[in-house]
Design goal:
This protein has helices spanning about 30-35, 50-60, 75-85, 130-135, 140-145, 155-165, 205-220, 225-260, 290-295, 315-325, 410-430, 435-445; strands at about 5-10, 40, 40-45, 85-90, 110, 175-180, 265-270, 275, 285, 300, 310-315, 345-350, 370-375, 380-385, 390-395. It has about 450 residues and is α/β, with parallel strands linked by helices. It has a domain at about 5-115 and about 155-345: Alkaline Phosphatase, subunit A (3-Layer(aba) Sandwich), CATH 3.40.720.10. The strands form four sheets. Strands 2-10-7-1-6-4-5 form a seven-stranded mixed β-sheet, sandwiched between helices. It has a four-stranded antiparallel β-sheet with strand order 12-13-14-15, with helices on one face. α6 packs parallel to α8 and α7 packs across α8. It is globular. Bound molecules: zinc ion. Zinc ion (ZN) binds near residues 49 and 50.
Length: about 450
């Protein structure tokens, strides 16, 4: 039976990979896998941040089937494969995917390699210097000047690679999941100098500090000049692309290691969401917006089962992998088997709080809101539901790929069709936004804890 390697790269946008039309050579390994296997030109994550999107990747459900992103009662790919006789091994570098949020479920061996987490059970302490500088708010700028993080926000891919090499003999068939954080912010031009190609021109420390200063001013809501914004965009693009290049080299190492363990491995490479690099005002990092940079992701299978130019969605990963392994699909999976069918609609969605962040800890979240989008053909429809109002947006992605011109007041017929798709989806997953908001307020009043985080 065939083994499986699933590589998830946090915050990796599809349009920064060379095989999806990006002019820079950022990803030779990923792209050679894409050219010999199947890749989808229009793959989307089901949500714009990790906690909401991973239930789709690992459990094949829609994010809003579990409005607090809880997968405790859902069966995951690791569990399905483990009960099918697979040896299951997980390497995780993100505390949002650690054992405290149940992502170790179904893994016989699970390595939480997180360096930072709000929970002591998975946290490794930062250095003393890092702690002190953080206390006075200088850690980011000092890290940038020293070109290395004082309190590493995550374990880098080369550490994962070393850990992987130490696992020794693995019984076949196996399911190996590796999550990599190197493409994720914060973005300084630090890291292995051999992995620096595009960001070399930021060598002058002052230039880099200037770009970071622009980022800081934007964070504080201050106005910045168009030339400063351009400087920041260029800086982010260069550092981001170097991170992809570095991750690609790590993936090359992982692939060659895994191929030594088995000569029949199905490799799947994807991401949990994209990343805003200031394309639109305020669109930076990954927050609860469903614009293209935040949900366009790569989805690559190492085997060729179709010439992919179609739409695909993270939620299709579990059913497609099971089909390729000839394992029966359990009930409750929402996605489609991409070896047999194709999609005409993709849905993305999440709940979010007053800061457009995850609704997870009650002491931080004062409200619960929802955002959902549907993509059909050239059209993209976004609905935002808060306790105060429901707002809509409609974009023509062919004429306006940057989603700058909202057409929801000009395209009545299209709007009606897209509304009914989202209404149908909401019914299908049994979501009642008004009831969920009321429940949230009640839980907050009672001071209940939400989610499985501390
Ligand atoms: Zn993520």
């Amino acid at each position: 039976m065939r083994s499986v390697l699933l590589i998830t790269v946090d915050a990796l946008r599809r349009d920064h990979l060379s095989c999806f039309g990006y002019p820079r050579e950022t990803s030779p390994t990923i792209c050679s896998l894409a050219s010999s296997g199947t890749s989808f030109r229009e793959a989307y994550s089901n949500a714009p941040f990790t906690l909401a999107s991973f239930p789709s990747i690992m459990a094949g459900i829609y994010p809003l089937e579990a409005p607090y992103y809880d997968i405790a009662k859902k069966s995951t790919l690791a569990e399905i494969l483990s009960s099918a006789g697979y040896e299951t091994i997980g390497f995780n570098t993100n505390y949002l995917l650690s054992k405290i949020v149940d992502y170790s479920k179904g893994f016989q061996h699970f390595y939480d390699l997180t360096t930072w987490a709000p929970d002591r059970r998975v946290r490794k302490e930062p250095t003393l210097a890092g702690k002190l500088l953080k206390r006075v708010g200088l850690n980011v700028i000092v890290s940038a000047l020293l070109r290395k993080p004082l309190s590493p926000p995550y374990v880098t891919g080369d550490v994962v690679l070393k850990e992987l090499q130490s696992i020794g003999k693995v019984k076949e068939p196996f399911f190996l999941w590796v999550h990599l954080m190197d493409v994720h912010g914060p973005y300084f031009a630090y890291g292995d100098p051999r992995a620096r190609k595009f960001s070399r021109r930021w060598k002058g420390k002052l230039r880099e500090a200037r770009a970071l200063d622009v980022a800081g001013r934007l964070n504080r809501g201050e106005e910045v000049s168009p030339s400063d914004l351009r400087l920041l965009r260029e800086f982010l693009r260069d550092v981001y692309d170097d991170r992809i290049l570095f991750t690609d080299a790590v993936i090359r190492g992982i692939l060659s290691g895994v191929r030594r363990l088995s000569n029949d491995v199905l490799v799947v490479i994807t991401s949990d969401h994209g990343e805003g690099l200031h394309e639109k005002p305020g669109l930076v990092g990954h927050m609860a917006y469903l614009y293209e940079p935040l949900i366009s992701i790569p989805l690559i299978f190492s085997v060729r089962f179709r010439k992919g130019s179609e739409l695909a969605s993270s939620i299709d990963i579990v059913p497609t992998v099971l089909s390729l392994l000839k394992i029966q699909r359990p009930e409750g999976l929402r996605g489609i088997d991409l070896t047999k069918g194709s999609r005409d609609t993709v849905i993305a969605e999440t709940s979010f709080n007053q800061d457009r962040r995850e609704v997870i800890r009650l002491n931080e979240s004062r409200e619960m809101n929802f955002i959902l989008s549907a993509r059909v053909g050239r059209w993209k429809y976004i609905r935002t539901i808060t306790s105060r109002k429901v707002s809509e947006e409609l974009y023509d992605l062919v004429m306006d790929p940057q989603e700058m011109r909202d057409l929801h007041q000009d395209q009545e017929k299209v709007l009606d069709r897209m509304r009914s798709i989202i209404d149908g989806h909401i019914r299908e997953i049994g979501l009642n936004p008004v009831r969920e908001m009321a429940r949230f307020r009640l839980r907050k009043m009672r001071g209940e804890k939400i989610g499985r985080q501390s």
